[in-house]
Write a structure and sequence with these properties.
The protein is mainly alpha-helical. It is built from 14 helices and no strands.
């Protein structure tokens, strides 16, 4: 009953957030006028704002569920796709397509950029995990965080270096991937990222019961029938699909996958069968509201703050507080 009530409340809150995000913005638009007849109001609300808000919801939900899955798999409460370098690798893949001039044709870029981002995310995930496994303490603890930070730094430097080798128009496109942004997506892009996130999230939720057993340690989980190596592969592949699809449209948005799972875990407990689906809803709400804040904060100046800056302002202090309270000698799933 508690879970049902929580889901119902979050769905209602998500609908309210989507409505606010659609109705409010830098330009005035009347819902009554939009519903009454075609015109500028209908275009602003339903052709521009609503797809943007839906993209924010899909991206926020995907990043949050990946963060929850990573924290369970790695038994590290500070794990999330941005910090672990998965987002950075995906951004390198996407910007490589742009640097090669393959992202200018709409149909071609709609197919190539998500695939390149997926490959980049998988490569970054494999690199971080391989480096962490060779560290003295294994994949858990500070080693995997440090590996992720360095992969992110390398990714940012590759994107910055690449922009020097391309025309200014492509350079501007590439630099946008270093800051998270939510902009009007194409219908094809929105449908594609929604499909990737929905499929990947379903695969993660399916394994949520097995993730609970990982808290007992690999050997105990194996004894209880969990193929830990296979579970790791499934989670990494599904997570990379989600992150790659999101980054191909939004660039690097950090800390959603860190803040949301911990907030949900404190209220609903550490059971991943609840944690993962609820994280999807809370992540969607968070990013929709952050995007709305980015549009309204500097409206008087005629500009918008990148949504990645808003999530960093929220998640950065949370990360520092958690860093001071986390012992790397032990692992935890309770946050």
């Amino acid at each position: 009953m508690r879970l049902f009530g929580g889901v119902a409340a979050l769905v209602l809150l998500l609908l309210c957030s989507v409505s606010l995000g659609t109705l409010m913005g830098s330009d005035h638009a009347s819902l009554g006028a939009a519903l009454a007849s075609p015109g500028a109001d209908r275009t602003i609300l339903f052709a521009y704002r609503l797809p943007r808000v839906l993209l924010a919801a899909v991206a926020g939900g995907g990043l949050a569920v990946v963060g929850a899955a990573f924290q369970a798999l790695l038994r590290n409460p500070l794990a999330e796709p941005y910090i672990l370098g998965v987002s950075g690798g995906a951004a390198v893949g996407a910007t490589t397509v742009i640097a090669l001039g393959l992202g200018t044709a709409t149909l071609l870029s709609a197919a190539l950029i998500p695939v390149a981002a997926l490959v980049g995310g998988l490569g970054a995930t494999a690199l971080v995990y391989a480096v962490a496994r060779r560290a003295p303490r294994g994949p858990a603890g500070a080693s995997i965080l440090l590996a992720g930070v360095m992969v992110n730094a390398i990714a940012a430097s590759l994107i910055t270096f690449g922009k020097l080798l391309v025309p200014p128009s492509r350079a501007a496109q590439m630099l946008r991937w270093l800051v998270g942004f939510i902009e009007l997506p194409t219908t094809t892009g929105l449908v594609a990222v929604t499909a990737y996130v929905a499929l990947g999230s379903a695969l993660l939720v399916r394994d949520s019961g097995r993730m609970n057993l990982l808290a007992l340690g690999d050997e105990s989980a194996e004894t209880l029938g969990v193929d830990v190596a296979a579970l790791e592969r499934r989670v990494f592949i599904a997570s990379s699909c989600i992150v790659g699809a999101i980054v191909s449209l939004t660039g690097l948005i950090g800390f959603v996958g860190l803040v949301v799972p911990h907030a949900v875990r404190r209220v609903m407990g550490p059971d991943h069968r609840r944690l993962l689906p609820l994280s999807v809803l809370v992540g969607a709400i968070m990013l929709v509201l952050c995007d709305l804040g980015s549009r309204l904060a500097f409206r008087a100046f005629g500009t918008q703050l990148p949504v990645g800056a808003v999530t960093a302002l929220i998640g950065g202090p949370v990360f520092l507080v958690m860093l001071t309270r986390t012992s790397y000698g032990t692992t935890t799933t309770s946050g």
